[in-house]
Amino acid sequence: MAVDPRGAAQPVGGSTSAAASAGWTFRAEAVTKVYQNGIRANDGISLHVEPGEVYGLLGPNGAGKTTLVKQVIGLLKPTSGRITLGPYDLVESPGVARQLCSYLPQAQLPIDSFRLREAITLCGRIRGGDAGTVRRRADELIEALGLEEWRNKRGVSLSGGVKRLTGFAMVTVHPGRVVILDEPTNDVDPLRRRLLWEQIRELGNRGVAVFLVTHNVLEAEKAVDRLALIADGRLLAEGTPSSLKAEDRGHLRLQLMLRPGAADPDLRDFVRRSTRVGNNLVAVIDDTDAARAIGWAEELIGYGLAEEYALGATSLEDAYIRLTGRATGENGGE
């Protein structure tokens, strides 16, 4: 099987037009991975991602996200199930998978010996990009991500956040049909994190299918078109952020910042459910109980048990807690 270096896969003996007309939908069908020790890392996961979609994979440590990603890019073979991209079976052709998929791992890329712009252009050329196009695209990304002052600095002198952004540019300067980003905002400062989210959205606008693997639910809610919540190797729910929050309509979230060291306050009867991570207590209430909730929060502040509070609409994080039983502060990226 031959693969066009520009990312347009072409079966040996087949026609380019046939491959192009087949479309580039990514599909995982009943993907299961059972290790020799009996651990079932993925359990019948089925999902699809269309070209141009930004698709989130959310879940706690051990959920099976990384195992699924490794199967997509041909580093692991599923015990059963199919993984396809357009007309290509990525399980049967792991080499094709690595050519058609671009992957930013959670760990930093090894760029210490390279200058920032050099690392980006070199990666684009290795992936088959035209020299002039890669140089222009590298300069666009450097400007868009606010990296101009480091463009000629060697990787060894760069901060973790700048290295992370450089890695993103290396992966996307000449992207495959699918781009997989594992915790792309790690170590990135708030200003450049916003620029990074804009570029992730731009990938979708360019027709690339983007897998966003993250535990940052609040940020993901603003960036993804659809998402899957995964826990214990199983797909718990899939849909748009709005559809996953549907069950929480008519509810509000009361966020209390408790005084350091304070014990959990006694919950009032109007609290439907609550979760505490560190000094942060989040309670879900009916919107009709807003006044009572504010009164309770003011009372806790008066007693010196809480320092501040915020009352607002429920978020994707509340749906995440409801479905997984875990708060996002309890887990890092997998």
How would you sum up this structure in a few lines?
With 334 residues, this protein is α/β, with parallel strands linked by helices. Helices cover 32% and strands 28% of the residues. The strands form 4 sheets. It has a 6-stranded mixed β-sheet with strand order 8-9-10-5-11-12, with helices on both faces. A 4-stranded antiparallel β-sheet has the order 4-3-6-7, with helices on one face.
Written account of the structure:
- The chain is of the alpha/beta class and 334 residues long.
- The chain is 32% helix and 28% strand.
- It is built from 11 helices and 16 strands.
- The strands form 4 sheets. A 6-stranded mixed β-sheet has the order 8-9-10-5-11-12, sandwiched between helices.
- The radius of gyration is 22 Å and the shape is globular.
- The protein starts with a strand and ends in a 10-residue tail after the last helix.
- Residues 5-22 and 330-334 have low confidence and may be disordered.
What keyword list fits this structure?
11 helices; Alpha-Beta Plaits; six-stranded mixed β-sheet; about 325 residues; globular; Rossmann fold; alpha/beta; 16 strands; 2 domains; disordered C terminus; four-stranded antiparallel β-sheet; single chain
List the helices and strands and how they pair.
Blueprint: E1 2-3, E2 9-10, H1 16-21, E3 26-34, E4 40-49, E5 54-58, H2 65-72, E6 80-85, E7 88-89, H3 94-100, E8 101-104, H4 116-126, H5 131-144, H6 160-172, E9 178-182, H7 190-205, E10 209-214, H8 217-223, E11 226-231, E12 234-239, H9 241-244, E13 251-258, E14 271-277, E15 280-286, H10 290-302, E16 306-313, H11 316-324
